[in-house]
Fold this protein.
Amino acid sequence: MEREIHILVIPYPVQGHINPMLQFSKRLASKGPRVTVITTTSISRSMAAMQESSVVNFETISDGSDEGVNLASIDEELERFKLFVTQSLAELIESQNSSQHPPKFLVYDSVLPWALDVARQLGVDGAPFFTQSCAVNAIYYHAHKGAVGMPAEGPWVSLPSLPSLGLDDMPSFLCDTTSYQALLNLVVNQFSNFQKANWVFFNNFDKLEDEKEIEKHRKKMEGENHILVIPFPVQGHINPMLQFSKRLASKGARVTLVTLSSISNSMGALQASSVNFETISDGVEEGKKLESMEARAKDFLLVVSQSLAELIERQNVSKHPPKLLVYDSFMPWAVNVAKQFGLDGAAFFTQSCGVNAIYYHAHQGAIRMPLEGSPAPLPSMPPLGINDMPSFLCDTASYPAFLHLVLNQFSNFEEAKWLLYNTFESLEDEVVNWMASQWPVKTIGPAIPSMYLDKRLEDDKEYGLNLFKPNVDACMKWLDTKEIGSVVYASFGSLATLGEEQMEELALGLKNSNCYFLWVVRESEEKKLPVNFLQETAEKGLVVTWCPQLDVLAHKAIGCFMTHCGWNSTLEALSLGVPMVVMPQWTDQPTNAKFIVDVWKVGIRIQLDEKGIANKEEIALRIREVMEGERGKEIKNNSIRWKKLAIEAVDEGGSSDKNIEEFVAKLA
């Protein structure tokens, strides 16, 4: 066997590399092969005593140290080392190739990746030997691939199969990149060609860094970090809070989504999720008939406060007592319930930072209500006209219960340990920075299914909750027959209702645009369609009662989204790179429209006539402007840019990903 297999081993000439590679050489020799350890002139004298009685052979080659030249920097020393060793290693292999024992293999120190090229040129295969741990080298690999910033940015770094890492846990070269640039290059360049090697050796053993051991750590973390999440029981609040729950679970936390009896039947299909579910009463099963919104809100608070308290009491004596309650900001009293039982609270805001900043100022009395003109400039916000403000601040009489709901979010928000926002830093950077300078704000969005963004949560393909039944097959098959970017998708969400005159103008505007259109008209709204409209537009349009909006927006046939500017719909369009024609109706939608058009520049706003109606001519004009005009091209380019930034935010190491990672880690 000795005649058949001859292995050369070349370590980097420092003790911490020579020792493990010499021990490995002895193990190899014990299995039968002939092994030659290649030492270099700078350490050959130190190796002399070993060469007399070892089971391993030794050869010395020049590394330039015998030339007697003093070099000023580490960079120069490493460059000289590479130059001399490349040549002398090639000469050694050539001489060995014509000996009685031609080598078959070179095991080279991983910090000498160029040694593989030398070996291959002379017909010898190669394998790097990594003298540091798998975990450390995994970090260097991700740095080489660009997944870890240099310098690394914290406070937390999240990497596959590794525990959460703070900056103090990272290799120092990645944090201080200027002091030892040459050594940083040395460790990162180990991965410049490692995939060309036949094998990759690590000085480790399986169980020490087995991913199962990491998983044990995650399971332990799961047992320690139990988070309850309670959304307000409407689809536009449940969906983003459910998505956030999935992200928390992916970071190792145990998460229980608390659903309410009024929507529990709609949640049945979700029970296979990575998230646990508990249902508590909101009083709907008692069949009370309450006339006013105010009476219903008061009863909701009374019943849910009590049933939430009972749930927390039960959970506190379970195997997984919760540490934190993430509560919908529409239910500020939930933090008081949590604190009574020793839990911290985090408020989750389902609307944008910009909109909530306005509500905060209104709550503080800085905005006089009802608004009668443009408000005074607000910190970190663009100039806002009265038509850009949330509708409840302008018309305070029509929906007093809703106005109380949005303003009351800030009644005790400073008691929360964190304020979580379904947005991302670069989208609302000025207002986020203003908020974060005063309160513990974390952006965690866009909270939409992972498969439409970073694709890291493989089973996260849909929200999983639809309070309306979507016409999936009809929509997707129809879109499949249309050319790229040729279809206008129109939808005004699950709550907005249009008057009959506005409905007719919208229908005729879509028709007169001469574009293909897919229009969602809820069953309750169908009677408002013009007579014979469906028959007259059968070749150009498809009208459905509900549709799978994410799938539609992601479809190549969609050219623009005609939207009411609900925050979830806005985030979905931004995340999927779809230009918008905006027609805001009420609540936060006018403010979202302002940002869509003037800040993010991804849409055009339909102007209303003197009666407050968007007429058919204006609708058709704005659709064609986005679909066909020069301004439309700019809007499409901006939409693609925001799509990339949305993905970056939730992808590994992105701003929202790091915020979620830190949020979970701080509970440990």
